[in-house]
Design brief:
Shape: globular
Family: Belongs to the N(4)/N(6)-methyltransferase family.
CATH superfamily of the largest domain: Vaccinia Virus protein VP39
CATH class of the largest domain: Alpha Beta
InterPro entries: DNA_methylase_N4/N6, DNA_methylase_N6_adenine_CS, N4/N6-MTase_EcoPI_Mod-like, SAM-dependent_MTases_sf
Oligomer: single chain
Keywords: Methyltransferase, S-adenosyl-L-methionine, Transferase
Strand content: 15-25%
Number of strands: 28
GO molecular function, one term: DNA binding
Structural class: alpha/beta
CATH topology of the largest domain: Rossmann fold
Pfam families: N6_N4_Mtase
CATH architecture of the largest domain: 3-Layer(aba) Sandwich
Length: about 650
């Protein structure tokens, strides 16, 4: 009985479903591959049949494939089949650049947008960004049953009896990977609706630890007119730390500026420039300015008892008694008369006589000249700019849809996240040089928020956005009836990455819409779009895929500056951030360059990559590297292949 009690499981229990499938349209159909019908579309109601390829005969368009599966043997044209992989099978991803926009400084970070299955993209990021991400924000499928997400290549229906456990299985895999990408002081924010809110919190308690819970934020986005009982227009955002006890290592200000502060301070500087050092005249001018402001202006919250100090600082009076009562009741002597000052009925605002005396000595407590009673406490206006962030905030959701429609010139995405809301939370939760990851990237709101934040405050944040190229159910049905299928240009061009995310972010940065019309002057930023491509390990070992692996090396060193796309001309190449030795016969000039940099104290690369199939050749190179580089050296392509073959725990 005791053993049974000790083994009881508490918490969230759910079925972990069969490994998910992902289609690889560009992967060649080869013996040993698992395949399915290319004509299968996400709205299909039947289970997805798969077969294992036994043989391939012929060439070109005449290739015939024989494959064996649970439904027996089939023989079809290779063009009718597409390779699929289960998520527990090793994959070898690369990145193919599809568009690069250099609209910022050379040393600015490149914001990266990746189109591909996010489970595999996260595995890839474990190669480049393990324990390196400051903030993860995701807006995953809410699992409302309205065909908002696809599991095993099929839309999950409202009537599916395993709807919730499929969603939890889907989320668990990705959240475990996300945890391994966060720094110790990293933070993850997950948006969610009513349907899965309670299950998600239990899942995150299990993955991140309930001791690392920070907040359950409520976003009130307006009333729902179709509510049957109580109108609840709220969404939620669960916020967890990777390690709550490590947050002190990073300056995270869970406070924000009150609206209108900058406007008031700017006016104060202008008034003081005109009237200083006449404090009375400046104060009168400032109070007159406040009276002219509209009654609903946010600056009115700062209008009470504003005045200037002799040094030009703009101050205001605040109550010296404890708000709500319960303050301290010690004796205070008037600095001029020496008589006791009556204690306010609510007690003093300062917690001790010593702190009160410091404020009196500093001239911050204002006393009546002809009485023993103090009237108020001086506060520089700048001290009033900070306010505690509340866990409930209001923002109409219609703003976001109108914004994306304005950017693209037409309505392409129904319910985007509000980039201004995301700017608020990214500003609060992450430093100005943060790496911000969103692996449910959707229309690109998170990347736009990061780009605009950098332009606003001069930050050097970098966004990494992962999205897929799935179609809406409506578009999938329409294209399927017209005879198109996944992989066709007509099909792929209507996917969210190509049709929404990429043109939206390109327009935000360049200021030019896809149709050539002008949206804005643009924003200084560097931006590159990639698509995940799946490689054959045999081609990788033969050094046939460097160009699509090059972005991974670059991404792993911060995605800044020049990328080494082809080191073959002289056999090696070196930037300020990383170096690649592609031909072992070119080792001598390669080592001379790195040792020269070390001797002259030039910028040494953060990582060194040596391409060789020989462990002896690799050792012969690394032993001659500058000492500080020997622990930052990687052997290609063994380290790359081994990473994807041995994924476990938070990696898998």
């Amino acid at each position: 009985m005791r053993a049974l009690r000790q083994n009881r499981r508490f918490g969230l229990v759910f079925d972990r479903h069969l490994p998910e499938l992902v289609s690889l349209p560009e992967h060649p159909v080869l013996p040993g591959c698992r395949v399915t019908l290319r004509a299968h579309t996400p709205e299909s109601k039947e289970e997805v049949p798969t077969w294992r390829v036994q043989s391939v005969e012929g060439s070109g368009s005449e290739r015939r494939v024989t494959a064996l599966g649970a439904e027996g043997e089939i023989t079809l044209s290779a063009a009718e089949l597409v390779v699929v992989r289960e998520f527990d099978e090793p994959i070898y991803p690369g990145l193919r650049s599809v568009q690069k926009i250099d609209h910022g400084a050379d040393d600015d970070p490149n914001h990266v947008v990746i189109s591909g299955e996010n489970h595999h993209a996260l595995q890839m990021l474990h190669l480049t960004h393990r324990s390196a991400v400051d903030l993860i924000y995701i807006d995953p499928p809410y699992n409302t049953g309205n065909k908002g997400w696809i599991y095993n290549d099929r839309y999950v229906q409202q009537a599916d009896p395993y709807k919730h456990s499929k969603w939890l299985s889907f989320m668990e895999k990705r959240l475990r990977q996300a945890r391994g990408l966060l720094k110790d002081a990293g933070v993850i924010m997950v948006a969610i609706g009513d349907d899965e809110h309670h299950r998600l919190r239990m899942l995150m308690d299990q993955i991140f630890g309930k001791e690392n819970f920070i907040s359950d934020v409520v976003w009130q986005g307006g009333r729902k007119n179709d509510a049957r009982y109580v109108s609840n227009g709220a969404d939620y955002m669960l916020v967890y730390a990777r390690r709550l006890d490590a947050l002190g290592e990073r300056e995270i200000r869970w406070r924000e500026e009150k609206p209108g502060v900058h406007e008031v301070l700017a006016q104060g500087e202008k008034v003081w420039a005109e009237h200083g050092p006449d404090e009375d005249a400046a104060t009168a001018e400032m109070r007159a300015w406040f009276k002219k402001q509209p009654k609903d202006s946010p600056v009115q919250a700062m209008a009470r008892n504003v005045y200037f100090l002799p040094d030009g600082r703009l101050c205001r009076d605040t109550d010296i008694s404890w708000p709500g009562g319960g303050g301290e009741t010690y004796d205070v002597l008037h600095p001029a008369t020496g008589k006791p000052v009556p204690v306010p009925s609510r007690g003093w605002a300062f917690s001790s006589p010593e702190r009160m005396q410091e404020a009196i000595d500093g001239g911050w407590v204002i006393f009546r000249k002809d009485h023993t009673k103090p009237i108020s406490l001086k506060r520089p206006l700048i001290d009033t700019t900070g306010q505690v962030v509340m866990s409930v905030f209001e923002r109409q959701r219609t703003h976001a849809g109108r914004h994306v429609q304005d950017v693209l010139g037409d309505k392409r995405f129904p319910f985007p996240k509000d980039h201004e809301v995301l700017m608020r939370w990214i500003r609060l939760a992450a430093p100005q040089d943060a790496v911000v990851l969103d692996f449910f990237g959707g229309s690109g709101s998170t990347a736009e928020a990061v780009i605009r934040l950098n332009a606003e405050d001069g930050g050097s944040r970098q966004s990494i956005l992962v999205t897929n190229n799935e179609l809406s159910d409506k578009d999938a049905r329409r294209l399927s009836k017209a005879g198109h299928q996944p992989g066709d240009p007509e099909w792929e061009d209507r996917g969210v990455f190509r049709y929404v995310t990429r043109p939206r972010l390109a327009t935000v940065v360049t200021g030019e819409r896809p149709d050539g019309s002008r949206y804005s002057e643009g924003i200084p930023a560097n931006l590159e779009f990639f698509e995940v491509t799946y490689l054959q390990d045999s081609r990788v070992r033969r050094d046939k895929e460097f160009r699509v692996l090059a972005p991974l090396l670059w991404l792993g060193t911060g995605a800044r500056g020049r990328r080494i796309d082809d080191p073959a001309e002289r056999g090696w190449d070196c930037t300020d951030r990383y170096a690649v030795l592609a031909d072992i016969d070119a080792a001598e000039p390669f080592l001379q360059e790195l040792n020269r940099r070390a001797q002259q104290r030039d910028e040494l690369p953060e990582h060194v990559y040596v391409i060789t199939g020989s462990s002896a050749e690799y050792a012969a190179v690394t032993v001659r590297l500058p000492g500080e580089l020997r622990g930052r050296t990687h052997r290609l392509y063994d380290d790359y292949l081994r990473h994807f073959e041995n994924l476990t725990g938070d990696d898998a």
